[in-house]
C-alpha cells in the first residue's frame, strides 16, 4: 500500500508541475526532459501489478510450518470471467488462516493479516461486478493442504499480473 501511495503522491506532484508550467516547459530543453521523465514514471506506475504486495507476503508465508489447515482451493485454470470469484475464494480462505494463526500464535501472523488487508482493499474496487452462473462457489472446490493452497494462490495472482 505504501508503494501505491507514493506513486499517487508523485503523480499528483507531476500533475501540478505540468499544469502550472506546461507552456514554459515546452520552450526549453530541460522542460522537454521533464515531460519525458513524467511520461515514463506514469507508464511505469500504470504497469505495476495491484497484487504485488499480496504476492510478496504469500512468498513469506509459504514455508510456514506452524500453519496446518485444509482449505478450499480454487483451480488456477478457471475461465477469465471467473477470476474475480476465484480471488474472492482465496481471500475467504485467508480468513481461515488468520483465525488459525491467532489460535496457534503463528510466527507469520502479521504477514497473513497483511495479505487479507491488501487483498480486500484491491477487491473492494470490483465489489458490484456480476458473477457468471458457471463460476463455482468456494465450497465447490477441492480441499487441499496449506502448501498446495498457497502454490495455487500464487499462480492465480501471477496470472492476474501478466
Say which CATH homologous superfamily of the largest domain is assigned: Interleukin-15/Interleukin-21
CATH class of the largest domain: Mainly Alpha
Secondary structure class reads mainly alpha
Shape annotation: elongated
Instruction: List the helices and strands in order.
Output: HHHEHHEH
Stretches with pLDDT under 50, minimum 5 residues: none
Give the count of helical stretches. 6
**Approximately how much beta-strand content do the residues carry?**
under 5%
Main β-sheet, in a few words? 2 strands, antiparallel
Main location: secreted
Organism: Ceuthmochares aereus
Keywords: Cytokine, Disulfide bond, Membrane, Secreted, Signal, Transmembrane, Transmembrane helix
Family: Belongs to the IL-15/IL-21 family.
Describe what you observe in this structure:
Helix 4 packs across helix 6 (146-161). The protein is elongated, with a radius of gyration of 20 Å. It has helices at 2-26, 29-46, 52-61, 83-104, 109-123, 146-161; strands at 70-72, 143-145. The chain is built from six helices and two strands, in the order αααβααβα. The protein folds into two domains: 1-45; 51-160, Interleukin-15/Interleukin-21 (Growth Hormone, Chain: A), CATH 1.20.1250.70. The model has no long low-confidence stretch (mean pLDDT 80). Strands 1-2 form a two-stranded antiparallel ribbon. The chain is mainly α and 162 residues long. The longest helix is centred in the first third of the chain and has 25 residues, at 2-26. It comes from Ceuthmochares aereus. One of its GO terms (molecular function) is cytokine activity. Belongs to the IL-15/IL-21 family.
Amino acid at each position: 500500500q505504501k508503494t501505491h501511495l507514493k506513486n499517487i503522491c508523485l503523480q499528483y506532484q507531476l500533475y501540478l508541475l505540468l499544469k502550472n508550467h506546461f507552456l514554459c516547459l515546452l520552450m526549453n530543453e530541460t522542460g522537454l526532459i521533464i515531460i519525458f521523465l513524467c511520461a515514463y514514471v506514469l507508464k511505469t506506475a500504470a504497469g505495476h501489478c495491484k497484487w504485488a504486495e499480496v504476492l510478496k507476503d504469500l512468498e513469506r508465508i509459504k514455508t510456514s510450518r506452524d500453519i496446518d489447515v485444509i482449505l478450499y482451493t480454487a483451480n488456477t485454470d478457471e475461465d477469465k470471467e471467473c477470476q474475480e470469484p476465484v480471488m474472492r475464494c482465496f481471500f475467504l480462505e485467508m480468513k481461515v488462516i488468520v483465525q488459525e494463526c491467532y489460535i496457534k500464535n503463528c510466527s507469520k501472523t502479521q504477514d497473513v493479516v497483511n495479505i487479507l488487508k491488501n487483498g480486500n482493499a484491491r477487491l473492494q474496487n470490483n465489489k458490484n461486478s456480476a458473477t457468471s452462473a458457471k463460476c463455482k462457489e468456494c465450497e465447490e472446490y477441492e480441499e487441499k493442504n496449506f502448501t498446495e493452497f498457497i502454490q495455487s494462490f500464487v499462480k492465480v495472482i501471477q496470472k492476474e499480473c501478466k
